[in-house]
Specification:
single chain, 272 residues, mainly alpha, two-stranded antiparallel sheet
Length: 272
């Protein structure tokens, strides 16, 4: 019908013109230096331009199909039926992304960090569950913060450090030497070797603690001489993750703890 054809021609022509202008300006704005510090806004503008470009292509293909019909050809009718479906899917995806990316993009870094902290928390859990036997009353989760991974990890590190300090007088030099030799045979060096030795010492000291051995020396043990002072959460977390991994999975740790050892001076309950 001529009136319907004229209406669609005007509609699709206006769509092509308007969407082309919008596409051009979105790409232009995305390159402006004013938005140099807003990378996610730039990406959102490019995605919005992509959605407009899909609309341009859709309208052009519809016009082409209509023109073929006017000339008496139905060869393009299948394309005319398929294009709306594909255009709607692509356009909705790009438009949704264009609206979401500028809002949630800046939060992606925080989300990734939270996921990383939850992964670290799961790695520390076996070691934390074992060491809580030293002093279960030290375990604390603030009300309403059970799902706050930053709080949970920080508390876990504090508790691990306190329990480690309590067990330090029970550390056996023979276990440390055996763990170091076994670790070196595996090619471990630096912090990885240090973490393995620490894990072996902790496991042996915890076993002694469970057997009822307690330190009798009044001197407070020296802190570990590894450059850590407890103020850098990421550094402390990285160290304890290596220790926890070795504690739970290293065959060298199990072998070092299984060997006969002598008790450190000042420890009651273990024959010297």
């Amino acid at each position: 019908q001529p009136t319907v054809a004229a209406m669609y021609t005007i509609y699709y022509t206006a769509t092509v013109v308007g969407s082309t202008i919008l596409t051009r300006w979105c790409f232009t704005w995305a390159r402006l230096p004013d938005y140099a510090d807003l990378p996610y806004l730039r990406r959102g503008l490019r995605l919005y331009a992509g959605a407009s470009l899909v609309l341009v292509v859709y309208a052009l293909l519809r016009l082409l199909t209509m023109a073929a019909n006017w000339l008496g050809s139905r060869a393009l009718d299948p394309m005319g039926n398929l294009v709306p479906v594909l255009g709607a899917l692509a356009g909705c995806f790009l438009l949704t992304a264009a609206l979401v990316v500028p809002v949630w993009g800046p939060r992606w870094g925080a989300a990734r960090r939270s996921l990383g902290l939850w992964s670290a928390f799961r790695t520390l859990r076996p070691l934390h569950r074992d060491l809580r036997d030293v002093n279960p009353q030290a375990v604390f989760v603030a009300p309403g913060r059970r799902l706050d991974v930053q709080h949970r990890v920080r508390r876990t590190l504090i508790e691990l450090g306190d329990w480690r300090l309590t067990l330090t007088p029970l550390f056996d030099p023979a276990v440390g030497e055996a763990a170091a030799r076994l670790g070196e045979r595996q090619g471990l060096t630096g912090e990885r070797l240090g973490a393995l030795v620490e894990a072996a010492q902790i496991k042996a000291a915890l076993r002694a603690w469970r057997d009822g051995v307690r330190a009798t020396a009044a001197d407070e043990p020296d802190p570990p001489d590894d450059g850590r002072d407890g103020t850098d959460l990421d550094d402390e977390l990285g160290w304890w993750r290596r220790v926890a991994h070795a504690y739970a999975r290293s065959a060298a740790v199990k072998a070092a703890v299984a060997r006969p050892s002598r008790a450190p001076d000042g420890v009651a309950g273990i024959p010297r």
